[in-house]
Amino acid sequence: MFTGESYKDVWKELPQDWLEGLNIKRQVASSIYDESVNKYGKKCGGSLEMWEQSGWIVKQDPYGWFQWYCRFYQGRRTEDDERQIGRWDRCAGEKGRWKNNLIGKVVRSGCAFDNPAVSPVVRQTLLHWGYELTEHDYKIGAKRVKK
């Protein structure tokens, strides 16, 4: 691991109600990426090595953006907040790369905004970033799509 340390049971810092109904061993604490637990059943994202080499993993949050976000949501504030918020914004914000990529694909497909058959990998990527396309966001974004 990036920090040179071994981590165990880090998920226990999460509020218990966030974990209700989840299979901890399979859905939260597995060391193996299992795309079958993903909503869209697709693998997305890069390897841990790629994330570390890109400088996107920092020592305070060795599990990356998700860990940072959980801690931020619970009130923690750090010098890394601006960087992480910017990363999210570039992915799923108003002009976010992946959000607008999905909107474009939906527009060109002629399908409904929430049709899971339209780009399930991008939809899963967005879910990994805590975002799911809404009809409101779709309508706003669709106006900017060149057909």
Number of structural domains: 1
* Largest sheet entry: none
The helix content, as a percent range, equals 40-55%
Ranges where pLDDT stays below 50 over 5 or more residues in a row are none
Tally of helical segments: 8
Distance between the termini: 44 Å
Instruction: Name the assembly state.
Output: single chain
Structural class: mainly alpha
SSE order: HHHHHHHH
Commentary on this structure:
The chain has one domain (1-147). 45% of the residues lie in helices and 0% in strands. The protein is built from 8 helices and no strands. 13% of the residues are buried. The model has no long low-confidence stretch (mean pLDDT 92).
Provide key terms for this protein.
mainly alpha, 45% helix, 147 residues, single chain
Question: Which SSEs are present, and which pair or pack?
Answer:
Layout: H1 16-19, H2 24-28, H3 48-53, H4 65-73, H5 81-92, H6 97-109, H7 120-128, H8 135-142
Helix pairs in contact: 6-7
Brief description of this entry?
The protein has 147 residues and is mainly α.
